[in-house]
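#data-curation
PF: Archiving a pair of folding outputs for the training set. Convention for this channel: one message per protein, sequence first, structure tokens after, nothing in between. First:
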Amino acid sequence: MRRWIVSILCLSLLCPVKARAERYVALTFDDGPSGRFTRELLDGLRQRQVQATFLLCGYRLKEYPQEADRICREGHEIGLHGYSHACMGTMCEDALRRELEDTLALLPAGCRPVFLRPPGGKSSPCVTEVAQEFGLGILRWSVDPKDWAVDDAQKICRTVVGSARDGDVILLHDMSHSSVEAALAIVDALSEQGFTFVTAKELARHKGVTIVPGREYERF
């Protein structure tokens, strides 16, 4: 009997256990930078050694250049969210170009965005054409807890954690304490479940996706 048990144990050691496939998600933050909320978020992400993607508005870059510099310096990805946060879906090509050019001019030195996220996700053939012209993929999202309208960090967290899947792009904002608190709770909860947080660009790379300018991406 003892010999049989020893044999089983030896076989179990020889047979490798199949590793669980890694699961990746991207946290993305719209509408910033926003001063103290962005700083609070960056502090929490740094403590957790997590990188995220920030879709920034030009008018807020003008107001908070130091926060934008820190976002870039700490290894996060920066994308464009337009200058004015006006609806891009109804803009002509010239207006769209101005929105992007004016925002690009305010980015930290060396920052080369690969994504545009139109405010509210409102796109059009003109948005597609101008995104192609600027070499930008159009980044949408697959998980949206509508944190901008919910002043309840726990509810936001539950919504995201309950629906997150491998390859998801999670939409959040760094514009309120509840959103920042929820974002860090999401990182803690999903990390415990084995998820790895990466930037949107890194998520595409992990999934073998080449970003094509003008093409829309909801998840990878």
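PF: Second:
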Amino acid sequence: MTLSLRTYSRVTKKGQITIPSKLRKEFRLTAGKTVSFESSRQGILIKPIHDIMDSAGALAKCARRDMVKKDLLESRKKPFR
């Protein structure tokens, strides 16, 4: 993470800015990604928002779909309390 990187961008008439390519690469900001804007004492803080769909399949190596389904159906047969 580069903390001392200082770059500049102009604000367009529509309020748009260009995030420098070095920062886009560092924070994996590609077309269609969502970011949040927060007001802070230092100014505006822009944070990437991670989409749950980006994580889809990340835990696939932990269990097979058929085993998860079987366990879920078995747990539904047990009494709640």
